[in-house]
Amino acid sequence: MNEPELRAALSATARQATRQGLNPGASGNVSVRLRDGFLVTPSGLPNDALEPGQMVAMDMEGRSDGSLKPSSEWRIHRDIYRARPEAQAVVHAHSPHAVSLSCLRRDIPSFHYMVAAAGGKDIRCSAYATFGTQALSDAVLAALQGRRACLMANHGQVAVGASLDGALALALEVEELCAQYWRAKLMGEPVLLNDAEMDEALECFRHYGQRGDDRQGS
Question: Which residue of 98, 123, 127, 153 could cross-link 139, Cys pair, CB 3.0 to 4.6 Å?
């Protein structure tokens, strides 16, 4: 897609994330890779009213096009694109169940095979750091090692995709897994899948689906 198309797709994804309960108000942020940089949603504007012209273009040095201030978490997006050549889109969400688990600073263990949708046998929770800082970006990158998603301590979640649709779908899946794990814990201690069972699930995900993107399903 060219830049106007990416701007339209990014603003539409940000609005959709709000409609689907991931990012109420002006919380969270979304980005998509662009040439040698990326487009990211602006800081402090309501997600459900974002327009293509409000998307902020940034380079890998952290310079923006000067139209609007970028999201305070632009460093997370920039550093993911630097570290992960396959990453084409990033969704950072303040979704309710992910926030709740992140405030307990809990990893999501292998209680369900869909945990493998995030690329590993668990979904890690990063260390805590103040929002908008390089320290937070560093903590997120550490938690994302070998994964496509993580929780952020006392904050929310991050999902990485090969497309905007893929990143959004994964963020929605992580939120659902957080809700399922929370409900299971109310009843007792969930039975975890073992390493062999998760290895098999991970192998199945390598070949799952009808399309060449990273959207997952059951």
Answer: 127
